[in-house]
Amino acid sequence: MSLLVVGSVAYDSVQTPHDHRKDALGGSATFFSIAAALFHKPSLVAVVGEDFAERDVHALEHAGVDLSGLERAEGRTFRWGGRYSVDMNHRDTLFTELNVFESFKPQLNDAHRDASLVFLANIQPGLQLSVLEQVGCPRFVAADTMNLWIAGARDELLEVLSRVDAIFLNDSEALELTGCRTMVAAAGELRAMGPPLVIIKRGEHGALVFNEDDIFYVPAYPLEAVIDPTGAGDTFAGGFMGYLAETRSFTPENIRRAAVVGSLMASFCVEGFSIEGLRRLTLDDVRRRYSAFLALTRIDALAL
Amino acid sequence: MSLLVVGSVAYDSVQTPHDHRKDALGGSATFFSIAAALFHKPSLVAVVGEDFAERDVHALEHAGVDLSGLERAEGRTFRWGGRYSVDMNHRDTLFTELNVFESFKPQLNDAHRDASLVFLANIQPGLQLSVLEQVGCPRFVAADTMNLWIAGARDELLEVLSRVDAIFLNDSEALELTGCRTMVAAAGELRAMGPPLVIIKRGEHGALVFNEDDIFYVPAYPLEAVIDPTGAGDTFAGGFMGYLAETRSFTPENIRRAAVVGSLMASFCVEGFSIEGLRRLTLDDVRRRYSAFLALTRIDALAL
Fold this sequence. Notes:
2 copies of one chain form a homodimer.
Chain A: E1 3-6, E2 10-15, E3 20-26, H1 28-37, E4 42-48, H2 54-63, E5 66-72, E6 79-84, E7 91-97, H3 110-113, E8 117-120, H4 125-134, E9 140-144, H5 147-152, H6 154-162, E10 166-170, H7 171-178, H8 183-192, E11 197-201, E12 207-211, E13 214-218, H9 232-247, H10 252-269, H11 283-297
Parallel strand pairs in A: 1-4, 1-8, 2-6, 4-5, 8-9, 9-10, 10-11
Antiparallel strand pairs in A: 2-3, 6-7, 11-12, 12-13
């Protein structure tokens, strides 16, 4: 099944309490597509500037990403800078330079319009809608969003929600968007807004998957050290969607497997800056960590 | 196997964003022993004042708690007051009146000295040590602690750690006590301080159990509404220890079951103020929610 992602390709400048990187390859579509490509070749629709380095084009191509939808525009590539707190659970955005992203109008070619699975990464909901207008009849559409759009583009976001099969969002965003106080209540509200599948991301605490009547508690793999959390959520979505595209099954059992794959891909992501934790991964690495997830959460029947 | 808990019996005044209770039955030993008693009769060692109501004595007796170690002293019962934030994940202590607890010196009778399982609830580490001096040769000793003692009684706390089989503490306390930045690293440090079993509680995110080389990710049951989180940690420990006392098995598999029982007892606890969520529970309620935990975390083998 063909997989399409529309989102950002960026240069990130990240400071953690221990180290930093300047102008490292980042962006939602980058993390998503590199994670997805381990399972199924994704097509990326995004824009970069004249300064986008050939080595980064090669990194994406080498990972197996179709770049026929990567537009190069006059100007500089989108840049984001952030700083993480000591516990890595909080970050401050230091700067956002939209640059070429400011006038980005996603244009899908004929192949992209026929995509079976579509991921609308975290971009302005109006742009997400313009992509939905262009795709034909996808089997499965998922969207990500963020607090900026919940506050500033609520009507368009609600329109997106009414037209997708799945929504990815953070726990605090789920509460903010719905006005609810628990994840269970928020997921119920979100499903009433449209998507039958709601995936609430909780950082180092994993994720909760609400799939119609099925609730699945996705653990996060406990790591000895976290280097850089940037891109973990997009990587989760990339592993999830890439696995679904490859296995072509949307049963509750396979949705659960896809969510575990998403979580473990995110655990690899945060073990390095930028795409360093993802770029040399093999399917065998995934299989090994999947086994570790099985062991981590195995519950025996009650002996009582 | 006989089970002993030493801790506080208190009157709690709790404000949540939606409701409040004044002078409701609380305290670490109360929550612990009512949760444990569903599985195995615990003996409680604590002190209350002259104002301790007969109905609260009856509530503990009715739950199946042995009160032969409940001392009644001149003065008022220990009181605590707290207020929860809107998301219920943060609380401020409004007041602490030690009252009769100020001069509490736990005195164990002969039966209590022979206990097989001992839980040292969150009290001053010096008092925890005095209890350890009095017990004979217990099979399994667990302790709880808090940030107050990490900062103010570190040497005694380290002495406690060197003498127990298991430590329960919150995630932030684990990081504070060890100076580590991840739970995996903190658990390694804590195990090096003594206890082979480290249980890191994470509130609505469940718990992590580090049992020698076994790591177990314990989910928290996702609830539609949380009424009052007070006592959830002590209830977790009570379910855990009560289950172990009844099943008499300390294998890694049974430690995992005990942790799930602890987590699900905590989920019942937070569904009501004070002990309201616990007092009418049956083993069948536990069995049903245990099945729900199994369904919640079930991961199928990877199809790839």
